[in-house]
Amino acid sequence: MTLNGSRPDLDAIIELIPPKSRVLDLGCGDGELLARLIREKQVTARGVELSEANVRACIARGLSVRQGNIEEGLADYPDGAFDYVILSQTLAYLDHPIPVVNEMLRVGRRAVISFENAGYWRTRWRMFRGQGIGGDLCSGEVRARAITLPQFEAFAACMQAKIELVRLFAGDKPVRILPNWQTRVAIYVLSRAQGVV
Amino acid sequence: MIVQTQYFRYDGEIKLQSGATLGPITLAYETYGQLNADRSNAILICHAWSGDAHVAGRHSPDDPKPGWWDDAVGPGKAFDTDKYFVVCSNVIGGCGGSTGPSSINPKTGRPYGLSFPIVTIADMVEAQRLLTDHLGIERWLTVTGGSMGGMQALQWTVSYPARVRSAIVLAATARLSPQTIALNEVPRQAIYADPNWNNGDYYGKTPPNAGLAVARMIGHITFLSDASMREKFGRRLRNGSEGYGWRFDPEFEVESYLNYRGHSFTKRFDANSFLYLSKAMDYFDLSYGLPSLADAFRKVTAKFLVVSYTSDWLYPSWQSKELVRALLQNDIDVTYVEIDSNYGHDAFLLEVDRLAELTRDFLRRVETTH
């Protein structure tokens, strides 16, 4: 991703997951987050990952992962199979976020979604200078959606999801004022709003 | 690694899935490595259609050929015989020393032929369970195999959930697809059409080698892939630069490969066994008589490593994914990898380096958890 290797969201996600939870990480990459969750929170961890190389890396860490495309659905998992379903820095790369987040809210009691805020002032500055959003075309990075905080909150509302918790970061520090300008990385914890099936 | 085939004889009868009985039973098997003190390091390897108990090593120092999966089984290999006690037995219905249609029926004193009862994957596993008891193994660390071997591994987890800590299922399925049943039926028809087959009664006479060779050629096509055939043979001619011969002799390299494989197979395999094992696979469906495939795994506790191969069109990846879904619906710990390979179904035998990495990591986790 484009965060120069710094992932303050990982620490924050680990902090907000209670010990011994059942956790599913969608797009779990090389398994760093799941491995830390097992070590630091003794969770029961499962992962889904698209790339064979990353799946191998996860297996080498002793994780239980399956190779697959999260957009092909989570229909395999029973309702409420997990306490937390995590989508970390992956929302921007989904072709169809609605069905994925819907399924996250079905198979998990809570959905944890982190993303880079496109409203961050540096990103706006880059745009203003005509440098665009995301990696250079030469970087080979796959097409990503630009998502801002208000956009995400509108998305949560249209998904009829309740926002349980928000954590906003500029660098490693929490954001206090002007969130949509200051926030580089956002973490939202969603649940299915009461009475909605 | 020098190894000897051993024979286990069970004097009773087993009740088969069809309701028929079979007995007494002989199972040919080989073992590698040492069983540890608490008997927790035993691995059962199940062979595929044309395999046998001789999975690795050589029978004598001047034995020209090692076992069928020697690349994967041995010291430091995917199934490390320095660490694990590895067992492989020939299935019932086969012709590698275990009781099958070419064995003598003790009631008649003549080879069974078609009077041999239909056996299933579950029956093969039942016979292996007797051997397991005989060897004093309470619980397998893992049961593994590719293709028909993978079906047996799956069946083990269902038939004897308490006796299997994990299963490594390669290039297999929980139930055969109509395409694969079709690809089994044509080879059977090739054998039936050989007049020497004589309804399975050919022992002591000329065996149906022409039919069996064609059957095996069809098999080899299904084990390869379009890409691996292009890579391996292209349109190359046996005569190289001499060009077309304008006649019906095998001229293309792919033809001579199939002919060679087909005919050499007749020297080591019994046509009736070929028929029986193909039928066992056709009948294999863990959801048979159940509302869904997920229902088959309700009591299963083993951890799974499921591996499919991108170019395998005999047991394509969608079948492994179907299996993984059924396991997940039961909250079973399953790891799934789709290995990118051009080798088709044969990939499970050939992609050994990538497999070794996976089995090492997976088994380490199985050994450290309960």
In short:
Chain A has 197 residues and is α/β, with parallel strands linked by helices. Chain A has one domain: Vaccinia Virus protein VP39 (Rossmann fold). Chain A has helices at 8-16, 32-41, 52-60, 97-107, 121-128, 149-158, 179-182; strands at residues 22-26, 44-49, 65-67, 82-88, 108-116, 161-170, 173-174, 185-192.
Architecture overview:
The complex is a heterodimer of chains A (197) and B (370). Chain A is of the alpha/beta class. Chain A has one domain: Vaccinia Virus protein VP39 (Rossmann fold). Helix content of chain A is 31%, strand content 25%. An 8-stranded mixed beta sheet of chain A has the order 3-2-1-4-5-8-6-7, sandwiched between helices. By secondary structure, chain B is an alpha/beta fold. Chain B folds into 2 domains: 6-176 and 284-368, Alpha/Beta hydrolase fold, catalytic domain (Rossmann fold), CATH 3.40.50; 181-278, Rna Polymerase Sigma Factor, Chain: A (Orthogonal Bundle), CATH 1.10.1740.110. Chain B has helices at 121-134, 148-159, 178-192, 209-223, 226-232, 253-266, 271-283, 293-296, 317-328, 347-350, 352-368; strands spanning 6-10, 14-15, 21-22, 25-32, 42-46, 73-74, 79-80, 85-89, 104-105, 110-111, 142-146, 166-170, 303-309, 334-339. An 8-stranded mixed beta sheet of chain B has the order 1-4-8-5-11-12-13-14, with helices on both faces. In chain B, strands 2-3 form a two-stranded antiparallel sheet. The radius of gyration of chain B is 20 Å and the shape is globular. Chains A and B meet through helix 3 and strand 3 of A and helix 9, strand 14 and helix 11 of B.
Question: What would the keywords be for this entry?
Answer:
heterodimer, A: 197 residues, alpha/beta, Rossmann fold, 8-stranded mixed β-sheet, 25% strand, B: 370 residues, Rna Polymerase Sigma Factor, Chain: A, two-stranded antiparallel sheet, 11 helices
Average pLDDT reading of chain B: 97
Weakly predicted, low-confidence segments of chain B:
none
Name of the top-level CATH class of chain A = Alpha Beta
Overall spatial form of chain B? globular
- What series of H and E elements makes up the topology of chain B? EEEEEEEEEEHEHEHHHHHHEHEHH
Largest sheet of chain A: 8 strands, mixed
Average pLDDT figure of chain A: 89
CATH superfamily of the largest domain in chain B: Alpha/Beta hydrolase fold, catalytic domain
Count of helical regions of chain B: 11
Major β-sheet strand ordering of chain B: 1-4-8-5-11-12-13-14
Strand content of chain B: 15-25%
CATH fold label of chain A: Rossmann fold
Could you name the CATH topology of the largest domain in chain B? Answer: Rossmann fold
Q: Shape of chain A from CA axes?
A: globular
Radius of gyration of chain A (CA) equals: 16 Å
